[in-house]
Amino acid sequence: MKKVLSIVLALAIVLSLGVVALADSQTGNPENANQTMPANQQNTVNVVKTYKATNADTTSPAETVAFTFEKVSVADAADGITLEKMPNLVSVTLAAYAQGAATTEGSTSNLVITLPAYTGVGVYTYSITETDGNMAGVKYGANATPIKLVVTVTQGSSGLLEIAAIHTEGSGDTKSDTFTNEYSAGSLSVAKTVSGNMGDQSKYFDFTVTLTAPTGDTVGAPITISGGSHTSNPTTVATSDWNSSGVATISFKLKHGETLTFANIPYGVTYTVDEADYSSEKYTTTGEVDTATAINSAATTVTVNNEKKTTPDTGITLDSLPYVLMAVMAMFAAVVIILNKRRASDY
Fold first, then answer.
1. Averaged pLDDT, 181-193
2. Burial label, 334 (beta-carbon count in 10 A; 0-12, 13-18, 19+)
3. 185-307 falls under which CATH superfamily?
4. Are the C-beta atoms of residues 252 and 211 closer than 8 Å to each other?
5. Extents of the domains making up the chain
6. pLDDT tens digits for 245-304?
7. Cα atoms found within 13 Å of the Cα of residue 142, Cβ hemisphere only
8. Which one of 202, 233, 285, 297 is CB 3.0 to 4.6 Å from 252, fit for a cystine?
9. Per-residue pLDDT at 136 exceeds 50
10. What is the average pLDDT across 316-333?
């Protein structure tokens, strides 16, 4: 019986050492152990990555996220193992994101870190950074807060044993076991009103919206367009609509009471709203957006109004002339009667 207990105890010690932990400790002490690390082998560490959408009814771009890593330090190492000679990580990979992968609840995927074969004891520290994919509206989690991976290699009775502790580090050395990317996009609605007693509410007015991506960024997700009744209005901002400088110019027509909405514009993309000049038709235009303004909320509305009014001519017209003449004749007759009565009374 004692022999059986000794074997069980020995196995428990070995298994407690060979784990991967999402832990705050940089010494490799496992907490919340979730995976066994076999001794003396090259192994992988899986980190759960979350991809969130800031707003509902938005579509994140398809992309392949890349990572870089570097050696940070080595401590308590075997003879001859220095920072320069400590082994590099083999790879850091993540499955490509399909279009629309981000959700408001947060979708998850595995970041796979492949460890090298360690030949000596030591505490090996690495930093893993996500490459900025330059997709407009995407906030890359491991770019602002790199992942720190600490692999502690200890000497066990049957060979070298590995313990990996991994976490992200924010400002002030605040540790977190979360790793999140976020996609943020909103809508832009252009509304049309016509006012004034001479404003033509059946007339279509020409508009131009100019969208500009942040410098160096690409708009990789579709921007859909809806609303308005004119048959020439576009329904999407196509890839071909963006020039080499990241600018897309969209023309459309609206009449009174209509609205055209651009959906899924990434945060940081700027817009201007310009209406054609109708001053020659005596319209006064207000509400245009001449200064490039960034999308930074779920929904933005711009209302452009055209006013045209005049003071009606209330002078004498041919339609009222007969009545005016009758009134003048009646007054003339009244004057004649009064004068005749005065003459008669004098005699």
1. 97
2. exposed
3. Collagen-binding surface protein Cna, B-type domain (2.60.40.1140)
4. no
5. 19-183, 185-307
6. 999 999 999 999 999 999 999 999 999 999 999 999 999 999 999 999 999 999 999 999
7. 30
8. 233
9. yes
10. 67
Its CATH class, for the domain covering 19-183, is mainly beta
Instruction: Tokens for 210, please give them.
Output: 């100019």
Q: For residue 207, which of 187, 185, 183, 225 has the smallest C-alpha distance?
A: 225
Rounded CA-CA distance 155/101 in Å is 43
Query: Is 292:272 a contact under the CB 8 Å cutoff?
Result: yes
d(CA 182, CA 141): 8
Summarised one tens digit per residue, pLDDT across range 142-170 is: 777 788 889 999 888 778 887 887 776 65
pLDDT at 131 over 50: yes
Q: Identify which has the larger pLDDT, 178 or 155.
A: 155
Q: Are 190 and 253 in contact (CB under 8 A)?
A: no
3-state helix, strand, coil in the chain (%, to 5): 15, 40, 40
pTM of the model: 0.76
Give yes or no for residue 240 having a pLDDT over 60.
Answer: yes
Q: What span, in angstroms and rounded, lies between the C-alpha atoms of 117 and 208?
A: 60
Q: Where are the beta strands (DSSP E) in 95-235?
A: 107-114, 122-130, 138-139, 147-156, 159-169, 175-176, 180-183, 185-195, 205-212, 223-227
Token pair recorded at residue 82: 């220095």
d(CA 206, CA 275): 6
Give the residue among 217, 214, 288, 298 at the shortest CA–CA distance from 261. Answer: 298
The conformation of residue 245, written as its DSSP 8-state character, comes to: T
Closest-CA residue to 192 (of 263, 277, 254): 254
Other beta carbons within 10 Å of 212: 19
Rounded distance between C-alpha atoms, residue 270 and residue 214, angstroms? 8
